[in-house]
Amino acid sequence: AYPHLNVKIHGTNAGLTAAKDGATHQMFEDLSLMREIPGMTVLYPCDANETREAVAAMLAHEGPVYLRTDHTPAEVVTNRIPSYHFEIGKAVTLREGEDVTIIATGLMVQQALLAALALAEESIRARVLDMHTIKPLDREAVIRAARETGAIVTVEEHSINGGLGGAVAEVVVENCPVPVKRIGMQDVFGRSGAAQELLDFYGLNAEHIVCAVKKIIEKKQKCEAAVFRAETA
Length: 233
Prior knowledge:
The protein is an alpha/beta fold and 233 residues long. It has one domain: Rossmann fold. The protein has seven helices and nine strands, in the order βαβαβββαββαβαβαα. A five-stranded mixed sheet has the order 4-6-5-8-9, with helices on both faces. It is globular. The N and C termini lie far apart (54 Å).
């Protein structure tokens, strides 16, 4: 990294998808560690289609790149977007919405979409961003989401410290402060079990995202009410 060599690193079986291998084989800090290295590009695709695109982009990119992939098969969702195009540093909008933005990466993108569908049934319009590049983060997409929807929920199969949630929060607090909720692994080690059981145990599923979105919207409304009272006082 120091001489900015053209080295490509692939980290697989990331997060809870190491499953029954247990805590000794589960890595929740890799995105954070790689983000801290100057000049390092960090990618985390959400499905097979995006992984192919990410590998091609990684090989074409001059400089060190870290690519993270999961062990658990994931439903292909990027093929639902006719204009889908993978570009390092550019988020993909999978669903439009004005009430809240869900920013997800990797395996959690599918759960974010399921959550958005459930929220739509309650007339909550959630924007869903596939943030396949953790570094360089798409700052413009994050700032636009903050300004246009007023609340953000991040979802990742990684520690909430230093990963996607941390990166998004840094941009929001410096540019357009709005309520942000980070969903991911707390400051804990993992445990053994089937992948889906572990994801459910740690709240990395659509149901938990829906609950988090409702709470962050309530917080958003309280903030807006407080601002209104201050302006009219």
